[in-house]
Amino acid sequence: GSFNGDELPGSNMATVIDINNGTPQLTEQPRMSFARRYPNSIVLANGTVVITGGATYGNYNNGQPASPVYAAEIWNPATGTWTVGANAARYRGYHSITTLLANGTILSTGGGTPGPVTNLNSEIYYPPNLFQSVNGVTRLATRPVMTAISGMSYSNAAAMQIDMASEEPVSQLVLVGTS
């Protein structure tokens, strides 16, 4: 849409833009389950992308009412598929934000100002990759714990030393910059 009160619907389309080889390459992806305007997206440490919030139309639409989208959707770049995730408790649309927290959860806050709501509150979303099933019971997955790191600033391709609380092997390490 071109402005907050136009009568254009949200979209469920998704496009990957690859800027790694000079000329950007656009690749259309399968459609999301829900059309959205004003959604937020977060790339998780495992490479999946979580889309939250949004509405079917702009906040001040005079024709079609804006229906909030509560369900999160998770895109897996390895398979190109979408999975519907847990619902938010509040509408997060226009003027909302999400940010990845250090523990892998997502802070979702604000939304609607100006608009149909004024959300001066926040929610924490726990993506599915933070859980594991043990004997048929779902629980938070055990995560590696770093006890020391050799520095707080590194040049590109610089070596670092990390001490871990456990001697269990770590298959992947991802450094995440928070918002």
Could you give the topology of this structure?
Layout: E1 15-18, E2 25-28, E3 40-43, E4 49-52, E5 71-76, E6 81-87, E7 96-100, E8 106-110, E9 122-125, E10 131-134, E11 137-140, E12 146-149, E13 162-164
Antiparallel strand pairs: 1-2, 3-4, 4-5, 5-6, 7-8, 8-9, 10-11, 12-13
How far from one another are the termini?
26 Å
Walk across the major sheet and give the strand order. 3-4-5-6
What is the count of helical runs? 0
Oligomeric state of the chains in view: single chain
- Structural class by helix and strand composition: mainly beta
Q: How much helix, percentage-wise, in residues?
A: under 10%
3D shape: globular
What order do the SSEs take from the amino end to the carboxyl end, as H and E? EEEEEEEEEEEEE
- Sheet-strand content, in percent, reads 25-35%
* Uncertain stretches of 5 or more adjacent residues: none
Mean pLDDT: 88
* Rg, Å, rounded: 19 Å
Give the biggest sheet. Answer: 4 strands, antiparallel
**Quick one: how many beta strands?**
13
What report would you give on this structure?
- The protein is mainly β and 179 residues long.
- It is 0% helix and 32% strand.
- It contains no helices and 13 strands.
- The protein has strands at residues 15-18, 25-28, 40-43, 49-52, 71-76, 81-87, 96-100, 106-110, 122-125, 131-134, 137-140, 146-149, 162-164.
- The strands form five sheets. The chain has a four-stranded antiparallel beta sheet with strand order 3-4-5-6, with no helix packed on it.
- A hairpin with a 4-residue loop joins β5 and β6 (81-87).
- The radius of gyration is 19 Å and the shape is globular.
- The mean pLDDT is 88.
